[in-house]
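EI: anyone free to look at a 452-residue chain?
SC: sure, send it
EI:
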Amino acid sequence: MKKFFALALVALALVACDKKGNEPEPVEKVALETPVLTVSNQTENGFTISWNAVANAVGYTYIMTEQATTTETSVTFSDLQPGSYTVRVQANAAADSKEYKDSQFADITVTITAPVPDVWFEQDMFVTDEYASEGLTSYNSIFIEWIGQDVIEVKFLVIATDGLEGMSGEEAWEGYSDVFQTLDAEGLEYVNSDGCLIYLDGCTSNTSYSVIAHATHVSGETTLLTNEVTTAEFEVDDTVASWFGDWTLTASEALKLSVGSDGYLAMDFVAHDFSVPVTISASTVDPNQVLIYGWSQVDASLPAVGVVAEDGSLNVYTGVALDEADEEGYAPTWLVYGDYEGGSTFVSGQFPAYSFVKDQYVAEGVGQTVELTGGYHFTVRHMEVYSCNEDTGQLSPYANEEDFPLFYLAGDITLTSADVDGAPRAAKMFTGKAKAQIASRASVVSTDVVAF
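SC: here you go
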């Protein structure tokens, strides 16, 4: 018995050992083929995603906003809003499959765009006196209004129609698109809601202006619109017209500019004889505004700007910039120099520097006294065009070192009619393009008065 028991134990041991040694190797599952997705039947609010049947797949999982399954090889989405949608699809193996596992997800993105309406961008151009209280009138300003739907860009050009030289809007866009302005993001919001209204002031009266606008819809469609309007022709009353004509300007003194031994600019009031021919002409932007040519000793073609008051007096303004600033921020600007708390200084700000009262054919001009910020007082004794940087307050005369000393008009100014019978002749309107551009920017807007 003992022998048999021993043999039985050995047999059991051998059987157990044999079973462990012949255990089969685990089999690695193969991923199903990834579906290949295509878009079909796309409409204004939906689309269908289709894919090839994947061998050994028992169904498919798809995900867009939610996850779902299907045994078909396509799925349709409807009632969608415009936008971009990403759909993911996976081929599924049988849950008990020992050979296959689910495939990787395939992705596809579909964009639904809103239908493009027949009219998605409109433009209007007009003149009005509705904003005359703000200085924007039918003879010096033009207004442009845009309204649209799903507009993503507006580029535009406003120009005197003569400047187009007969070109069509399409020709102007093709040739000068690099100088078109781009409406900012805030403006676009207005275009796509209640409408965007912009204006251009400083326009010339009785002049045709054109606006060319190139708009782009979210769909990629573009349109080019051109409109034209003519500013009103204002009537100048007799009080203003009485200042038009040729005059002789005399000054009671001069401001002498010289370079001192230390290399710095020295400025002194000295006696000097001035007899300067000037012409007073009508402005093209305001019926009460006049342009005075000849006052500037820097360049007689640069006009001083005056406004005729209701009492008939003529107020000549300082602080008027005659051109846009250069890259360094300097612009030709009328500035005044005069007495300030026992010394002399330049003063910035836009205000009447000289006031002229006419007695028949002679007009006496006196430098005005103004209160500066801080309560100090300043009296004008000189006005001329200087190169001025508004941001830094730095200025310099338009002259080279060899030009010094310079003598500029100063003190009290007298205007005497140049006509022998005392009646000023008809106004000589400026004709040069550059002068017209300068004059259009020489508008009068009051600002604070600040000493340099």
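EI: Helices lie at 2-21, 169-176, 185-191, 238-241, 433-441.
SC: 👍
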